[in-house]
Amino acid sequence: MYAIIAIFGAINKLRDNTMASPPTAHLGAQYGEIAEKVIMAGDPLRAKFMAETYLENPVLFNEVRGMYGYTGTYKGKRVSVMGSGMGMPSIGIYSYELFNFFDVDNIIRIGSAGGMCDKVKVRDIVIAQGACTTSRYSHTFNLPGDFAPISDFTVLRTLVEKSEELGIKYEVGNVLSSDVFYGDTPELSANWQKMGVLAVEMEASALYMNAARSGNEALCICTISDSLVTGEACSAEQRQTSFTNMMEIAFNII
Q: C-alpha dihedral over 240, 180, 232, 194, to 10 degrees?
């Protein structure tokens, strides 16, 4: 009984303290300045672009380490956008803090990915139902086996419906969240291809694990920017158009 009282006392003290100073060392926001729904892009400048393009009355809540975050409204809904940085360690920190210190309940990651099979072409949208990984991130949870990181089904279904409504081509399936961008053994990608993995990116798996651990929702949407099968890559102009389509889908389901 006394232990329970002590725990609630500590929680209340923490909440009181967050009202006076930022709850974490990585985010300069005060408690309440971040919306419950957050769209994250790896590039903080892309988060800045989203805020300036889509949000009404965007307010900067974070620029610590140059990781821009803004809160505003989109079609009357309060939404935050923020950078995540590259790789699972980076998005792992930011998504953990958003879920556990700022009461965020839904994070949608948007980003680029390399196509790993004939099914996906450059500029296609890939919706990551699951996220395989080469990372040891799951070991931090001390599980007695391998964890299968998956997206939130309700958010995924809503995004599929919106993609069809907008006439945007998409594929749903597994992606690979890799710890490295420049691998020393690129031929190993064939082993993932034979398992039906659609594309490779660097963040979804950690995001999904943090969402599962905190009991929240997460989804990763990627635009295929280049193909590991054909060698094709989209131009800077094409990337801008494709990424804008992906942003609009995310904003319309948040």
A: -120
Q: Measuring CA to CA, which residue among 73, 86, 84 is closest to residue 108? A: 84
Would you call 146 a catalytic residue per the annotation?
no
Per-residue pLDDT of the chain in tens (254 residues, 90 and over written 9): 444 444 434 444 444 544 557 889 899 999 999 999 999 999 999 999 999 999 999 999 999 999 999 999 999 999 999 999 999 999 999 999 999 999 999 999 999 999 999 899 998 999 999 999 999 999 999 999 999 999 999 999 999 999 999 998 899 999 999 999 888 887 778 899 999 999 999 999 999 999 999 999 999 999 999 988 888 888 776 676 668 889 999 999 98
Catalytic residue among 43, 105, 179, 226: 226
**Which residues have a Cβ under 8 Å from the Cβ of 239 and sit 6 or more positions away?**
112, 223, 225
